[in-house]
Amino acid sequence: MESLSQLFYLHGIGYEYTKYNGEHVVFSNDTRSAALSCCGVDVTDQAQIDHLNILLDANKWLQLVPSCSLVCAEQPAVKVRVDKRKLAQQCTISFACVDLPSVTHSLAELECSGDYVFNEITYLELIFPLPTLPIGYLDASVQVADKKQQTQLWVTPKHCYQVGEQKQSGLSIQLYSLKNKAELGVGDFADLLTLVQQSAQHKLDYILLNPLHLLFCQQPERASPYSPNSRALLNPLYLAIDLCTDSKNNLELDHYLQSSTATEFKQRIQGLQYIDYSAVNQFKYAAFKLLYQNFKSHGSEQRKQHFSDFCQLHEATLATLKVNDTEFANYLQWQAHMQLKQCQTSARARGMSIGLINDLAVGCAGDGSEFLNQQSLFTDSAYVGAPPDPWAEQGQNWGLPALNPIKLSDNNFSYYKALIRANMENVGGLRIDHVMAIRRLWWCFENQQQPDGCYVYYPFEYLLAILTIESHLNQCIVIGEDLGVVPPEVKTALADKAIFSNGLFYFEKDFHGEFLTAQSFPAQSLLMVANHDVPPFFGWWQGFDLTLKHEYQLLDEQQLGQLQTERKIEKQRLLRFLSSCETHSFSLDSPAEDVYQAVTLGLAHAPARLFTIQLDDLDEQILPVNIPGTDQEYPNWRRVLSHSSERILARHSALLSAINSIRTN
Asked: Keywords for this entry (predicted)?
C-alpha cells in the first residue's frame, strides 16, 4: 500500500480537499485507484507500480537535466543533477540556434539546492549560472565528462505581458448573438468589425469574446463554445461572406444569395429569438463552397501563395482536422484567421489599447478533432467536472475528457504550447476559463458506481511558464477565470505572474453575505457585473431567471418561492451596496435600468484595471445565453440581441462617457 500511495502522489492524484461547507474530505483508496486506472495503470500489478515509482521519482535524479528546464529570465540559471562523486568534474552547456558561446563551470563551485539518495549513492542538484538569454524556448546540451544530455531551456520572464498601468474599460460579448447585418442568422466577423469601430469611438479599450473554437459542422445544434470540436481552430460560422475577397465578382455566389433558397432561408430565420443553427449552417456552408470554388478558379497566384504559406505555418494544427475535404476546411480556417486579424488590426489602429480578448475553454469534446488527434495524452474514462457545491450536492460532470498529467509533458509539452499559441494569435488578450485547471482538476469516473470524484494535480510550474512565455511572444495579456474555490497557491502564483483575476460582482461577498465595496477589487483583476453563466442584470433584478427556470421545470413551486425570497434579500444587499457608492436612493421597486446604471457607475470606481460591461446588459436582455446544468432543457448558446450594436452603444453613449471619465481621472 505504501508504494501505491507514493504512485498516487507522483501521478498527481490528490489526497484531500476542503468542501464548500468547510468539511475536510479525504479521498478513499478506491477513488484514487480509479483515477490511476484511468491513466492506464494496473493498480493490482505491483511490478508496474514499483517500476513507475522509480521512473517518476528516482529516474529524474539519474539524468543531468530534465527534457525541459525552467530558467528565470532575470536571473538565468539551470539546475543540473549529478552523482556527488563527480564534483571534481566540469559541466559545459552549449546552445543551439543562438549566437552564444558555450558556458563551463566547475561542479564543485556551484551552489547546491537539493539532494537525493538512491541505491546508496547521493545525487546533488546544482545551480548552473547562465548568460542573459532571450525569452522563449532554447535547445541546449549539457555535458559532464562523457555524459551528454539535451534539454529545452524555457527562459521565462517575471511577469506576463502587460499593457500599461492605467485603468481600462471594455465590453464582453457572445459574438454569435450580435445582430447580423447580412441577415444570415448569426453574428459574424463583419459585425465584430463594426462593434470594434463603435467601441473605439466610445473610447473603450477591449472586447472580451466568447470562445471562437471550432464546433461540429455535421452536428450544428451542438452549439456550446465550451464543449468544442477543437480549441486550436476557429468556427467558420463566424466568417462574414462579404468580407471575403472571393465574394467579389463571384456570379455563382451572387445568384445563390439572390435565389429563392436565400429568400426562404431569411424568411425562416427572420425575427427568431434563438439561432436556428441547422438552417444557418446549411445556408452558410453552401455559400462557403462557392467562395472556395471561386478562389480555386480565379484566385491570383499571390493569394494562392498566401494560402500555401498559411497552411505551412499552421500545418500541425490543421493536420488535426477530421474532414473529408481537407483543403476546403483549411481554406475556411485561412479566411477566419484573416478576418479575426482584420478586427484586431482595426481595434489597435483606432486606439484600443488591447483590442480583442479571446476565451479558452477548459476542455474539448470527447469525439472531436482535438481529442482524437491527441488521444494518447488523455485519460480513459475520466472526465472534468466540479466537486459538490450548494447547487449540485452530487458534484458536476461536464463530460470533457481529462488530460493525463504525466502524458501532458510529452514532446516538451508541445500540445499545450500549441494550444495557447493558437488562442493568442491575432488578439490582444486571452481569458482562460477555469484557470485552476493548470493546477488541479476535479475528475469524475465513468465506470464508478457511486457519484464520486477527486482532485488531480497538473505540472503547474510548467503550464504557468508556457502562459508567461507565450504572453510575451504574442504580446497578449492573460486573464485567469478564478471564480469558485481556488487553491491559495494558485491565487498567489497568478498574482506573482501578473495574470489578471476575474471578479464577478454577483459572487463577490463578505462573510456576512454583503456585496463587497467597489474598492475591494484588486488592481490586477478584470471586474464585471455578470457573465455568460449568470442571468443578465435586468433578468436578475426582475427575478425573471427564476420564473424562467420554473417555466422549464427546473424548479418546483416550493423551490421557486424559496429562491424568490432569497432574491429579495439579495436585492436589499445590492441597495446597501449602492448606498455606499452614492447619495441617490433606490428601492426594491426601482426600474432595472436606473439600478443597473448606478451599479455600473459605482463599480467603475474600483481599482480593478479591467472593467467589463456586458453588451447583453446594455441591450437590457432578460433571457440568459446559458443556464448551467442544462443541455436540452433550455436553448443555450442561441439567444440573440434585440438591437444592433450601433443602436445599443448610441443609446448608452452618456453612460459610457461617464464610465470613461471615472476610469481615466
From this structure: Carbohydrate metabolism, Glycosyltransferase, Transferase
CB 16, CB 24: distance < 8 Å: yes
Using alpha carbons, select from 249, 283, 251, 281 the residue that is nearest to residue 264. Answer: 283
Question: What percentage of the chain carries pLDDT values higher than 90?
Answer: 89
The ranges assigned to domains in the chain are 2-58, 75-156, 159-365+416-438+459-665
- CA 494/CA 489 separation, integer angstroms: 9
Closest CA to 208 of 429, 382, 502: 429
| Contact residues for 234 (Cβ-Cβ < 8 A; gap 6+) | 212, 213, 214, 333, 336, 337, 340
Evaluate whether 599 touches 537 at the Cβ level (below 8 Å). Answer: yes
Q: Which CATH architecture has domain 75-156?
A: Sandwich (2.60)
pLDDT confidence of residue 447: 59
pTM: 0.96
Question: Which residue is associated with the grid cell 467562395?
Answer: 291
545 closest CA partner among 649, 482, 618, 630: 630
Axis-axis angle for helices 653-664, 592-604 (nearest 10)? 20
Residue 507 has φ and ψ, to the nearest 5°, of: -95, -15
Q: How do beta strands 68-72 and 111-118 pair? A: unpaired
With a CB cutoff of 8 Å and minimum separation 6, the contacts of 425 are 337, 474
From CA 358, how far away is CA 476, in angstroms rounded? Answer: 10
Give residue-wise pLDDT tens across range 383-412.
998 888 766 667 788 899 999 999 999 999
The predicted-structure confidence for 12-39, as pLDDT tens digits, reads as follows 999 999 888 889 999 999 999 999 999 9
Q: Which of 238, 254, 245 is nearest to 191 (CA)?
A: 238
Q: How many CA atoms lie within 13 A of 468 on its CB side?
A: 25
Determine the pLDDT at residue 665. 86
Say which residue the cell 462593434 belongs to.
Answer: 195
- Residue 506: helix, strand or coil by DSSP? helix
CATH 3.20.20.80 corresponds to the domain 159-365+416-438+459-665? yes
